[in-house]
């Protein structure tokens, strides 16, 4: 089990470069990293986070060199750019189901395997002016923010931005930003910067250029900025969560920080919203949400709901424009670390220090299933917005969701969820079959699911009362504990705490690269899942975990 | 480090948040006695234990003729700390350390000692002393009544053969009961054997959590091949399934991470630097009652160093919602988020050598 001591930053021989799922193999396509110059342990407390940025073509009204769309190089291609907002659940911005129409060409110059294809080598020159579309990975490590090109085989980042006063800890990207100011960066000091990603790419220096600076030197809040999110469908509005349980609403059109004091929080256990009087100042509102840190936030697809998770172990769902708590619920125990919405806004995922992935129903306002499979804390969750259920055509009724989770156990887990199976309580038998246990006594309690009144926080349910899920796949992807994942239409992207990234290409995409045939590529967009029939034997054989429990629950995965 | 300066710095850091009546005192090191100091701090901030000990001191202080023992020395030390006029400072646990060395020759040398062994030794000594005292003061009628009880039909259980031990306040604080369930795969008969514990010693693996280690601890093990189980009902060796369950969760849950492992190829012990994360809140779900008992972390004894035979022990302690770092005579306030720096190393070559070794969780009384 011990990590190989020789595996410094390189690929550990113990780690496989692919993993099997019922629909085929996911293959390691690229690795992204940052210069080893970053001292390995100087940044123990700064955990690398990942943002996938879909940068659109530079608007024609801004003067620029000719966009490179006609080039055959894939370096800047992510043709479905505007459709991909929901790939990372926590930064869902503009989800539109299905694949982009021009998806077919995007893989044409990909490097398929370690041998590499020469076609990709020219891409960096073509993208040099960064006027075209592109998909970029933004990640932080120690005192630096790095930007890598998702579709390039280059391991090294194309851009490094150094912060001299405080470490960058979180970031968010808005592909719809009309003025081009799309990238938010939150610092350990509480400061928040807003910049244009394209301008950073085009600038040769190592400093942030043309930035708007909020909460300067922590003047409004000097606790760590833990999370940032743009409010979908509300151009220019964003929120910043802090380590002291406060969340601030900003409007980028307002710059001033004059007269921006908020009243003292009288009862730190109570949710309160305070607005500023001046119409010029920023932030425009403070939400005091909880005691202790807000660890992660996520907006539902159209921005109606805001979910927060934090140190106190509660998930809270707010109606953002009404500024009201809809419901909340607790982890099994310990802090919650991450959250994500389903693309249709019906379900939420959370992960935390109880090693569980929790599935919450918006309709029922409570936990509907616990995913057991991680051997350590769950640090990232995301729905796969591009997944289409293999059996959805037949039954029509059972909606299946695919989601992923990553943990500090260095594993990536993929899960399937069939909703009609979840609503019907499962007969849960504890693994190993305790002789003192009588089955069925508790399921009545579970069925009695009255709708929970609005605005209340639910305590954690008992272990035996919640239906359990087992993962479809469990794969050790890094040697270091993982800190996040993002699911795009082509791949699953994982990042570890030290800032090493792996891009796992979906089944179908990797194969088409190898065949290097353009006709295959056109098909591959629709072939992602539908062409691959999932059989029940595949599902049970690929389930990891204790044998007894996975057998019990295999029905959850495929009805 | 100047003692006075360290004290006033902590007082300044806490300001008017300094808890009423609380004392934060460093402990002087008498040559490799950090194993002792780190455990003492954890025990001092184990409030039910401290209160019992102070009460014991209050009840026994007038017994001038009483013989000095480890219990009286510890009670004396805790009373000395809690009755200090100053809020912070340094105390020399001289009499206590001398008593430990007198009592047990293992701890007499100046070599590096194991903090977990010391905790074990200390709790068992305290129990022995309390039991002896209670035996001495209790009159014979009670002893005979317990004999009667032993003959009553209630005790005719298959696992009722052990003598009911006297329950001291050390027991009520730390003791839990494990049930070792063995199910014969032929006749399905379940044999249950109870064991008491003051702490749970857990095997650890790289990049796991305490939750996962606890799960492994009570996972089902199949006894077969060379390792069959003698079933009393079948009167023969049979394949069986064995598992450990927690029958009675303790009030104070002490978890010992088995970081010092004997490596046969090396012929010596090696320290496992693994990263094992521990949450600030924990539930035990592997209990018999199926009630999830809830705990909150209040102290961690940390081993600092790369190997088992050298290094240093420090502790972190939660008191009145503040986290404090105790390193012999030094006491500092730390942020709650600093707790995670003691999880361990995600990779073996790491230079980080501060590792959580003994975890102290207190029951929050919550049953869900």
TrEMBL record, chain A:
Ranges annotated as biased composition (Low complexity): 513-528, 536-550
Spans of WD repeats, please give.
Answer: 329-370
The keyword Repeat is annotated on this UniProt entry: yes
Ranges where the record places region Disordered: 506-559
Question: In terms of domain of life, where is this protein from?
Answer: Eukaryota
Task: List the keywords (alphabetical).
Answer: Repeat, WD repeat
Spell out the InterPro entries in the cross-references: WD40/YVTN_repeat-like_dom_sf (IPR015943), WD40_repeat_dom_sf (IPR036322), WD40_rpt (IPR001680), WD_repeat_creC_regulators (IPR051362)
Keyword Repeat included in the entry's annotation? yes
Query: What is this protein's name?
Result: WD repeat-containing protein 20 homolog isoform X1
Task: Name its species.
Answer: Ananas comosus (Pineapple)
TrEMBL record, chain B:
List the catalysed reactions: Thiol-dependent hydrolysis of ester, thioester, amide, peptide and isopeptide bonds formed by the C-terminal Gly of ubiquitin (a 76-residue protein attached to proteins as an intracellular targeting signal)
Q: Which SUPFAM superfamilies match?
A: Cysteine proteinases
This protein's source sits in the domain of life called Eukaryota
Q: Which residues form the USP domain?
A: 25-364
Establish whether keyword rRNA processing is in the entry: no
Q: Name one GO molecular function term.
A: cysteine-type deubiquitinase activity
- EC numbers listed for it are 3.4.19.12
Q: Which UniProt keywords apply?
A: Hydrolase, Lipoprotein, Myristate, Nucleus, Protease, Ubl conjugation pathway
The record ties this protein, via InterPro entries, to:
Papain-like_cys_pep_sf, Peptidase_C19, Peptidase_C19_UCH, USP, USP_CS
Question: Per the UniProt entry, what are the Gene Ontology biological process annotations, in alphabetical order?
Answer: protein deubiquitination; proteolysis
Location comes to:
Nucleus
Pfam families xrefs? UCH
Q: Output the Gene Ontology cellular-component terms.
A: cytosol; nucleus
- Listed Polar residues bias regions: 137-159
- Region Disordered: start and end of each range? 137-165
* CDD domains registered for this protein in UniProt: Peptidase_C19G
Q: What does this protein do?
A: Recognizes and hydrolyzes the peptide bond at the C-terminal Gly of ubiquitin. Involved in the processing of poly-ubiquitin precursors as well as that of ubiquitinated proteins. Required for the correct development of pollen.
Membership in a protein family: Belongs to the peptidase C19 family.
Name under which the protein is recorded:
ubiquitinyl hydrolase 1
Source organism of this protein record: Ananas comosus (Pineapple)
Output the lineage of the source organism.
Answer: Eukaryota, Viridiplantae, Streptophyta, Embryophyta, Tracheophyta
Gene name as annotated: LOC109713645
